Amino acid sequence: MGIEWVHPGLLLIVGAWIVPLLKGHAKRAAMIAVPAAALIDCLAMTPGSYGTASFLGQEVVFGVVDRLSLVFATVFSIMALLGMIYALHVDDDAQHVSALTYAGGALGVTFAGDLLSLYLFWELMAVSSVLLVWLRRDARATRAGFRYLLAHVFGGLLLLAGILIHWSNTGSFAFGDLGAHSGGLAWGLILAAFLLNAAVPPLGAWLPDAYPEATVTGAVFMTAFTTKSAVYVLIRGFAQTELLVWLGAAMAIYGVVYAVLENDARRLLAYHIISQVGYMVCAVGIGTELALNGAAAHAFAHILYKALLFMGAGAVLQMTGLRKLSEMGGLYKTMPITLGLYMIGAFAISAVPLFSGFVSKSMIVSAAGESHRAAVFLMLTLASAGTFLHTGLKLPYSMFFGERRDAPTAEEGAAPGAEPPRNMLVAMSLAALLCVAIGIFPGLLYARLPHAVEYVPYTLQHVTSTLGMLAFTALGFFLLLGHLHPTRTISLDTDWFYRRGAFGLMKLVSGPLVGLQRRVGEAHEIVIRRPILGLAHVVRKFDSGVVDFALVGVGRSTRALSRLLKKVEDGHTQHYGLLMAGGLATLLALVVLAL
Amino acid sequence: MSFLEKHLEDPVRLGRIKRVLYVALGLVVAAEIGLPLLFGAGHPHFAFERFPAWGSLYGLLSCVAIILVSKLIGKVFLMRGEDYFGDKEHRYPEDGDGH
After folding, report:
1. Is the pTM of the predicted complex or chain greater than 0.95?
2. Distance, in angstroms, between B33 CA and closest chain A CA?
């Protein structure tokens, strides 16, 4: 890696370890300086190919810098900075190190030019992000973290298998458009791994399962990196894959349907991540220049407003201890600034004119229009109404207005709420500022997109029909308010298969499998153990009866002989002399007699 | 922000706000129908977008459809008690296994 290029992900991953070494103001300064350095690094970067190394005889490229990777890297760095400001008051070094490493992993994926380094950073993201769930340090978070990790380990294995098969087919680890291998096994495995991280149903249930259980500040990081880095690799590898058009459009509606039923504030917002990422996945599938620009622009805008929304819900959770909408209400009296900043995020995600979503989401919807896909156009517009309905109306209504219907009492630990610490408000204000700036000056964002932009968001027809749609969605909301009160329920998602499926598995294990094991044990007893024992018995009898007897016999004879000899060898020299003399006399007698 | 509190907790003022909002709805529809007549309709992608007040109409239909269909799917298939997976926080001892 040359001096001319420093990997911003490396800055974050290495810089993370400065934070625990420092204390007080220096620590807080480092928490801001590290992501700020990565951001400046990204902004100063010029396109090119950097950081080439050789590994196992293959070339790995850590720094593919082009317009596409730069726009994602820039927003990832901005997000790391905002997230660290939001977390400044948190006295938990482990969280800071995990969060910075996680953001560094996302930057690593963004600049990866080959599948090996992509895989490396992909796994780094999974491992560092699960810590942001576990560091909440309660039993629910621990269980949710394990489920999250299992889902991502599964995805990582799909990716690794896909990479290895791709390598054995082509002899190359280079990462680029995989359209030429469409339909192959490697193509399918890599696509499935990317779709899992993009939280595309039915592979996406890990997201609403884990994010609401993460720490208040950790969840803000999680909303940004995993799904959007997956969108990025989909743009790189799978543009114009028709399957993605339909998966994305269905996903946009899927998130909205679940959001109607949801009671946990951060889980509702998590379902809206799925819905919004659906727009991006759909755009990747459409694959025209306008659509890919839209996917990148929407990812950029989405990271900022979704972080702002999670920051708002996190502030409420932190200050009141409440996570369920059915318990909240009336907080506008004690948290008005939080409400105001939250609403800016809500207007941005709902694509209200002058907010960021209006200039990014509409690129995707227009791309569907320009490619004459009426059904997709209608599905995405419908999901837009649903987004405003929940994030812009139901959630703030239940949280900040409305009545507390089954709120816990003060003895049960509920607080009336107050504005969060100043650093949290600063982070939210910066995110809000960016949401508005992009909405008013879309050129700021458009200038950074991968392709030249001719799209004009502020046309008379677009503004009036959007306002009409939003206004009448609001009317529908207030007319049907009675049906929308949050209820204390949860909704089943595809995680049912591994959460309830695990109970089924345990039943299978404790019932039939244990029985089978017992029968195998019995068969083993009869067919193998008993004959062997019988044979051993015979061998032992032979051993003790014949072999031992023979040995004992030899021993006894030897001892008897020794006793006999002992009588002769009694140590008296005169007896030996006498014996020798007798012997000699006998020999002499024999010789004389024989002669 | 006593301003919000003052307006939301006073029925007379709240009523006034509601009337203003209804007028705004009317203006939005009028703008959607009227402005394209005055300044030209632009270039919509599909014929159905030329339907008068298309955005308002589709917004209202979408909102109602999403709420009703989701609730139906939820009630029939998806919704379960909070302790379905056995990891409810036991903050409400009185309804221990009420689901």
Report:
1. no
2. 9
